[in-house]
Amino acid sequence: MATxxxxxxxAEMTALRERLTSEGKTLALVPTMxxxxxxxxxxxxxxxxxxxxxxxxxxxxxxxxGAGEDFDRYxxxxxxxxxxxxxxxxxxxxxxxxxxxxxxxxxxxxPVQSAGPVGETFEGxxxxxxxxxxxxxxxxxxxxxxxxxxxxxxxxxxxxxxxxSMIEKMALPIRFEVLETIREADGLALSSRNRxxxxxxxxxxxxxxxxLLAAAREAHHANAGAVREVGRSVFENYxxxxxxxxxxxxxxxxxxxxxxxxxxxxxxVAAVVGTTRLIDTENLERLHA
Length: 289
Hints:
The chain contains ten helices and ten strands. The protein is of the alpha/beta class. It has two domains: 5-179, Rossmann fold (3-Layer(aba) Sandwich), CATH 3.40.50; 192-284, Pantoate--beta-alanine Ligase, Chain: A,domain 2, CATH 3.30.1300.10.
């Protein structure tokens, strides 16, 4: 493979999908907002194992950014991203906003896909409407691209839960694949927003993986309440970091678990380092009462 072909319009993407269908080929989609890093490339590598052709979408979705968030400064690096995808993906779908949301033309509103009650907790509580925007763009991409397989990263566990739930609710014929979080050597989860961090903030950001590690260790011999407290206490050692939340949720419903809960759990954490919001997650095999 060489440099991927870039498609900018729905018409181009539709024509590709129709051609692949006529050839009996399967298509995997890796949705991104660009500013690609090794974590994204790992998703693309997995997608190549699951389908004949890989499409990487690059679209900074305005609907998932709230007032005062970093939509305007979010890195837009299409040319660099396309080069990074050489020998990884055959196609890049990089549409303009009016291609994805034609209803916005003339100021009309976009029909929004509701994330429901789960979308109002954790990230949704701190970023109202965020997951409505995420599900709206994902549903739109599914409708345009019509993938056989989609690949997401586990780092945003709430997003993963909501997208999986939407696929199931809509009975979409899509295989949903989730890849484990890719990390730097020191444990920091790869993120496009890491580039916002200065050297001091980059060191302070290790509070997130350190808290997850402390929680995972505590889970071997303590209940959910103790695991939560141990994870949260790590942030006391990082004055540059403001903890938003650290909690344990039941992966079957994404609800916070009780102190005496027994079973698998997911630790979710979000914090602001300087002016940069970071999230992370860790799956726990089993908690003990």
